[in-house]
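>> received
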Amino acid sequence: MPQTGSSREYDVVLIGGGIMSATLGTMLKELEPDWSIALYESLHQAGQESSDPWNNAGTGHAALCELNYSPAGPDGSVDISKAININEQFQVSLQYWSHLVKNGSLVDPSNFINTIPHMSFVMGDEHADYLRTRYEAMSANPLFSNMKHSESPDEIGQWAPLLIEGRDANQRIAASRVETGTDVNFGALSQQLINNLANDDVDVKYGHKVKGLSRDTDGRWEVAVKDTIGDEKFTAKARFVFIGAGGGALDLLQSSGIPESKGYGGFPISGQFLRSTNQDVADEHNAKVYGQAATGAPPMSVPHLDTRFVNGRRSLMFGPYAGFSTNFLKSGSYLDLPKSVRPHNIWPMLNVAKDNFDLVGYLLSELTKTHGKKVDALRDFYPNAEDDQWELITAGQRVQVMKKDKKKGGVLQFGTELVSGAEGSIAALLGASPGASTAAPIMVELLRRSFPDRFKNWEAKLTDMIPSLGQRLNENPQLLDQVKQETRKTLQLD
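>> returned
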């Protein structure tokens, strides 16, 4: 058990109260129930930053509808390899959540996951041709075999009436649809898991901000913590530290001084969504509909019109409207970006800036859009949208990874990146989408990297949690069918 006083000792310290720390902590308590664990979250509740339902799309990213995961090549062909990998990872998360429902760790799955069809929707000849090519490539794969496709306004109108009502009948449109998509409330999921940890002797502390990390002479990490309510300061010592602090992870990773942290920078992207809680409107739309990103827009700014289930209430969300802010967390400081500049990452960051002027220009132009202009963008999807039925909400901050690159000096990477120390005592997660949807496979990879001497002994238990562990469902249709049937039944998605 941890000691009281100015120095507290643990086997593991988790930094951040979102879905990543919640997932890792839950896995470790099952694998090593005798380990002492502490979790520090600077806010006053779990899942209030990146995992909060209004700070992310909650799509349950499975690459069913997100077109940026299946890009077109110069010859017009569509590469679905990234879509396959992301869907494989989401299947792992579904299996893990199913396991937690079976063992009683999660109750009432509808509190955090619900079935909602996923759709891709495009306008114009070029985009319609692309979407058909994508459909042909994806529907031939076992992971996406239930995908449907149509260019019929009547059929698309049956799938999602708001897309068709008031639309020019002469406009060529196309849509693909998978009925078995999901909406996931990662905030509610994080809260359930962390409440369980607190009840299982994990020292969960809200309102506790980690200020820095340093290595003691005995090899353990000293975690400097400040209680933001009582103003107490203390040090927690741990054999292993996980930095799952969202946009705040980069600063803490840098403070660790590990060689693996060198060369990383962060590029913050802010965002807003239009939200409608008008039940007459929400009841007409039963889908998550993703379109094509605007020229120069980052992949995370792909426009989408989503049905959301939050606190038992159905609503719609459209966006995101991207912008630029120098803070790394929604609750962060405008000094976050300049403070993140180090001698080891300034060259990669300058090269990223040089190669991404169009992106910066796009983000700044987004900042100037009026409410009316934002609703005009919504009308590309929902022609009959009325201004007074939609309110503007601020989404979570996303900090994209900037890293060294041998050819370009530095690249901007959209996605998530697990950075782990070579000696296995520390790991951090950087980046954004698909992020939360792939928490379970990311944490399995963390366990593999950071605990190589224990991982083999853990594999049997991990396979109980995740039956397809180490296998590619894409290459095993029979196992894929078994997994899908079991997870959908357990998570009450049928």
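>> The two ends are 43 Å apart (CA to CA).
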